[in-house]
Write a structure and sequence with these properties.
Layout lengths: L1 H27 L3 H24 L7 H18 L4 H23 L4 H21 L18 E3 L2 E4 L8 H24 L2 H11 L1 H6 L4 H27 L9 H14 L6 H15 L7 H15 L6 H11 L1
Antiparallel strand pairs: 1-2
Length: 326
């Protein structure tokens, strides 16, 4: 019965994002919603990386740095070296993963607020680096980035040249949600694997995990590298959509929002970052009507949620189910 319910939920989810949402946008004529939902998908991918860092017991407030680094790498490769955009996506992720290993080796030993404060600085460091390096064009950023070209394998076209499409926004939407599905499917598989169970042991007690032979250093670095990889991938696709990138494209506030997406959705649930991103993104837009009280109301609601639902929104259904069972 449980497997049937999960299968049905997955089918409804796929139909909703791949069929229902595009159909509703076409019917309403609100083409701007394509960009909105594309942004939500990309933000949820980056937030998934932050969730994985939480899963090993670390508070990550530096995902914006890796999104910025991945975006710049993709932009530089496409505009200055004429590398295919499709190749820059994994390259941006790998670059951020390697960068995170170099940064993570000394700082992942820190716990709690100490690690969090160092990661909070990373986004500002990435911003200043982008301002200083000649290859990033300083404050002017990199603009006029071409749309993704054709992707073909053995002469067979897999993805057409975006510049030849009538609806580029729809193409980016499908690209973003497809990668989002792959990302969360991979995360779900990872969490339910042997490595996932070992990562959970780090969250509970690192000393105990180490005493039974768990290589906690390798696990921490691997989890942090995967987290940063997802940030780089999200930044790379963002660059292709906006066709530009600046040192201020991702800031400290973005890193904080990635963390909030995880908290609101649920720290104990793989799909928490996805739900949290949707709620925070659309919630902020809805509160725009309140004018100067927008930030006050937004902050108050977040505090109220964290006090009343400390395990995130996804915990509400489980809480009710457990209560009824008792």
């Amino acid at each position: 019965m449980l497997l049937t319910s999960r299968f049905l939920a997955v089918v409804i989810f796929f139909i909703s994002i791949f069929v229902l949402v595009p159909w509703l946008i076409e019917v309403s004529g609100r083409w701007d919603f394509y960009y909105t939902f594309t942004s939500v998908a990309l933000l949820s991918i980056a937030s998934a990386g932050v969730w994985l860092t939480f899963y090993i017991g670390r508070i990550n407030i530096g995902q914006g740095a890796y999104a910025l680094a991945g975006g710049y790498l993709s932009a530089v490769l496409v505009t200055q070296y004429e590398v295919s955009f499709w190749l820059t996506i994994p390259l941006a992720g790998l670059f951020c993963a390697v960068l995170s290993v170099l940064i993570g080796l000394p700082i992942l030993r820190l716990k709690g607020v100490y690690f969090a404060m160092i990661t909070l600085v990373l986004t500002e460091v990435a911003k200043l680096t982008a301002l200083a390096l000649p290859i990033t064009n300083g404050a002017k950023g990199i603009v006029s980035i071409p749309l993704p070209g054709e992707l073909s394998v053995f002469g067979m076209t897999i993805i057409p040249d975006f510049s030849t499409l009538e609806n580029v926004k729809l193409a980016f939407y499908y690209l973003a949600v497809t990668l989002m599905v792959i990302c969360f499917a991979g995360m779900y598989r990872l969490v339910n694997s042997r490595m996932g169970h070992l990562c959970r042991s780090l969250q509970q007690n690192e000393e105990l995990a180490s005493s039974i032979g768990v290589n906690i250093t390798t696990l921490r670095i691997t989890a942090y590298a995967i987290s940063s990889f997802l940030g780089g991938v999200g930044g790379s696709i963002f660059v292709a959509i906006s066709q530009s990138i600046y040192p201020t494209s991702f800031q400290v506030t973005d890193s904080i929002n990635f963390m909030l997406n995880v908290f609101v959705g649920g720290l104990g649930y793989v799909f928490g970052p996805m739900l949290g991103t949707v709620v925070i993104y659309f919630g902020w837009d809805l509160l725009f009507q309140t004018g100067k009280f927008q930030l006050l109301i937004y902050s108050s609601i977040l505090i109220l949620l964290m006090l009343t639902v400390p395990n995130g929104l996804l915990s509400i259904r489980l809480f009710k189910w457990n209560k009824e069972k008792k």
